[in-house]
Amino acid sequence: MMETIEIIQLPVGPFGVFCYIIYDPITREGIIIDPAGDPDKIIELVNENHISIKYIINTHAHADHIAKNQEIKKATGAPVVIHRLDDEFSKTPESIEWNRKLGFDETPPLVDIPIEDGDELSLQNFKVRFIHTPGHTPGSCCILIGKNLFTGDTLFVGAVGRTDLPGSSFTALLESLKKILALLPPETIIWPGHDYGDTPTSTLEKERETNPYITDFLNE
Question: What is the pTM of this model?
């Protein structure tokens, strides 16, 4: 199976979340990760590139990442995918209250396909693999497509996601980082959920060598 893909990295919404449009340039099949805002711009890019969106995927269920799920679903007909634990956690009072504090009066996400660690979704020419990486939220996931890892708020360039929020755990996040480092090769490209670093992308090797949450807490 070929895994030659095109990646559009698009900052959207009031928190500058990176939304990703990922597609195969031959079949034009694609997915959207974290449609957090600016749905008209997202759909404009989808249409300009003649992409058939097969899935809408969320790295986790915080409102700043899921805000425009339903608008994108209405426009594309694609199902919404998220880890089962975040589907469940998003319905709790503490999760709903936190989303309101962010300024989003969001109802819990309407999930069509709840996934588990190691699940895969197949398009014609590439696969999408889910790596459960709890810590920022109970159901946070990193999305692996070929050599590309879409890390949401688990791993940023030079930082990690917050762990002082409802459902978060610093200990769990460190275990998730260990899991990623053990599972994936150093040349894996990191595509984060926010532009918080000195570059919009990185590699696992660079993060192992420079990210203080790895060098100070995990490296011997």
Answer: 0.96
